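note to self: the first set is below, dont mix up w the second
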Amino acid sequence: MRKLLLWCLLLPLSGYSQQRLHLTLLGGFSNYQGDLQTKYFTLNQANLAVGAGLQYDITPHIAARIGFHYGSLEADDKQNTGQLRARNLNFHTKLMEGSLLLQYTLFDLSDRRISPYVFAGAAIYHFDPYTYDTLGNKIFLKPLSTEGQGLPQYPNRKEYMLTQFAIPFGGGVKFRVSENATLGFEVGIRKLFTDYLDDLSTRYVDPLILASQRGLKAVEMSYRGGEVKGGNPNYPALNTIRGGEKAKDWYYITGITLSIGLGGKGGGDSYSGWNGRRSQIGCPRVRQ
């Protein structure tokens, strides 16, 4: 009798857990805002991004998400104007991110077909900025210390880490297309704690010191105005502003999402395990 009662207690919980787990997919674009891309949100110079993860529904409104995103970021002064264009710097980087998020959905999708939602959490991301020289050679920028990072002559300019912590947050709208799936549109912004996502932050250093410590290629990649037609080939004076050091960089991932319920009928944000919609499998009543 005890085993029968235990089975009756665990069976509904087992059904609910099957209906609360979802596979999530994202296809869209990634972009950044910083010293080479001054617009806060734009499709200009955006790149494709993809993502996948799992979502566990704690309640019909609150869910925990774990996910992985892959994309790329880039920006070029040739897309800027005025003095920024004359600087002629650019960067590219592959972007890999793992995140853990808490999501709040305004409406219960058991009762409605559409609902807005918001999310926030923590993320670890990896980047490695690079560019191409005039011969088309791929040049990674961090080892060059283009602003004196890590050089003894500039003790206050520390080397930046290529794997860092970020705070992701954002929101979207999702639409239930079946009992087992939802489609949505999501905008996710990442607050960073570095200004070197684009290898650009502060002021120019002494080119002689930079050349002696990191080589002539470092000097060549730290200022490229001479490559522009009619540009100034002379290296800027010491401490001339190169980037805006007061503001950190950002990046964002935006796209179409698909959520598919795992483990049986009633997934995909349908929440059929709540609101009294229990499994039809029952247990015999025990007479006293």
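second set (the one i keep forgetting abt)
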Amino acid sequence: MDKLKIGVITNTFGIKGELKIKSFTDFTEERFAKGSKVELLIQDKYKEMTIQSAKEHKGMMIIQFKGYENINDVECFKGVELYINKSDLHPLKNGEYYFFELVGLTVVNETGDPLGTVLRVEEGLAHNLLRIEKLDGSTGLVPYNPAFILRVDMAKKIIQIKVIEGLL
């Protein structure tokens, strides 16, 4: 079963078993809602947990798992990653993609010549950025913006971009 990482536990918060989560999802409220299930990857095994409570605090999520009400019960979770099943993802609108779907796609120019491969999607201030590994092994950034992204073809596994001077 394919899993998708949605966050990592960075530390404890207070003494009542709450944990600080660095979220990797655009659907924070949904993924960390009370009653939601997540899986913790502990020593190469997944442990399903139910979220008892969640709130946002200074850009981090603060959550508490059902049955864990003491700091001593959760200290062992520091650094542990949180996952969901990819089958639990809801469909996006036409033309929208999850970040993980773009990784590995070939980037081509307007005429279809390959330029490189998407390594990852990075969050920028104005918009997201595609980190591209170019054919020479170096990397570059392409704004994920309609001014540069001409077409995403998931069937052909390509992203066609408009290349301007200095972009790559």
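remember for set 2: The longest strand covers residues 45-57.
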